[in-house]
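From the shared-data thread, chain only:
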Amino acid sequence: MTGFFDVETIAVTVLGYSMSWLELVGTLFYLVSTWLIARRRLPGWPLNLVGVLLFMLLFWQIRLYASALEQVYYVVTCLYGWWYWQRRDPDTGDILPVRYSPPAAIVTWAVVTLVATVAVALLLTRVHPWWPGLFPEPASYPWPDALAMVMSVVATWLLARKKVECWIYWIVIDFVSIGLYYIKGVQLLALLYACLLLIASHGFWHWHRTRVREGQKAADFGGCEDLG
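Structure, as tokens:
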């Protein structure tokens, strides 16, 4: 059983790329959980948590320590999302609906994303001269890499809070990641993000349609639903 958690234990080789059981199972958990969350299904969160923990172990073994530490944030947001999605409206007793953020919040998150992306990208361009022993080569494509990372952090929080616009973030992330991984020659990762792009597109369509339907239902019953 311990061999399963060893990155050297290969499950399958595709197009010359050897994939460990750890990476394969973690990827499957991630795909299934993302699909369930896109369909607003609560079990998506515990499944996503398993995938995150597997990837944390994977990144740690291949010494991508920053990526491993990033998974800690995703563990926290998974637990939060799992809890938040079970909350009920104190007045109606219904599960909290999906919503768009108010315009001011959308603008704020956009500004935060822009500023953080610039800061992270500038840091990535300087890690090589600052710490040549730790980073022997200059960062490759630091700007799209920084954009995808920062947007992933923001999108995960918005997803946990049931904000419809989180899927717009994921769509942009997936487009950037597909191009980045294809250029870098890791076509299997590019294919994975192509699958995630389809799921994110479906998630946005499904959540938006649900939000419009619930807003119309509230209007039909004379409610004062706030579409923000």
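Residues 218-228 have pLDDT under 50 and may be disordered.
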